[in-house]
Write the structure tokens for this entry.
Amino acid sequence: MPIHEQSLIRPENLKTHDELVMDGVDVSGHWSTFIESRVVTDYNEAMQDEIAALPGGEHIHRCWQCGSCTNSCTVNAINPDFNPRYWIYLARMGMESELLRDKDIIWQCVSCNKCTYACPRDVVPEGVMKAMSHWLELKGHTPMSPSMHFDEVFADQVIERGKIEESRVMQRFFKRTGQPLFQDWFVEMVKQMLRHLPVGMLARMGLASVLAPSTSGWSRARDAIREYADEQHGKHRRALGLDNLIETAKQDAGAPARS
């Protein structure tokens, strides 16, 4: 899986000699540009399997590096550094330190799915990008983004109540992300609702916000969903070796290990 793009060579790894003669031939200037050898200090041979264990990353092993994903990518057209093909290559090679150099832009995938439609191997690159973002967050390489906080708040609301109460979701999201509730756009939205929505609907929305009703007979479904979610979260942690890291940290701190 060779890398062809010159743009992927880090500038600090390019070395040029202003004056250089090799075997009697003057190769001074750009003719003497060499790529400095790299030393991979934290090779992770399980990296592909870790990403493949997360939702969306199941087919990362199918990639044959044709570049169709990057060529069709909406974000790449704006920011050439956003390169799904290259990141899939790094993950499959286990080059974790190289992937982490781009950790601040991997999450910028807009899920347009152009890459997925263009991929001839059904890798589902859009899903792989989401799996990589999830992997970065689970491994502690990046903090939780506002979108991740919103996903958790939204999912918690659905699982707990079987309903979506928009006002409660927004309140909890603002609180978790440290944002003030009364933002200009939010106040304007409420004003528009008061002007245009029927009084009966506004009353029901207000009561629902205060009372937080649940879907009738929801308790059994809630328990089943929670059990499944906990099972999947545990599966992901084990795939990334996080449970072992937690146990090791506890033992180092003097806490008893699980039996």
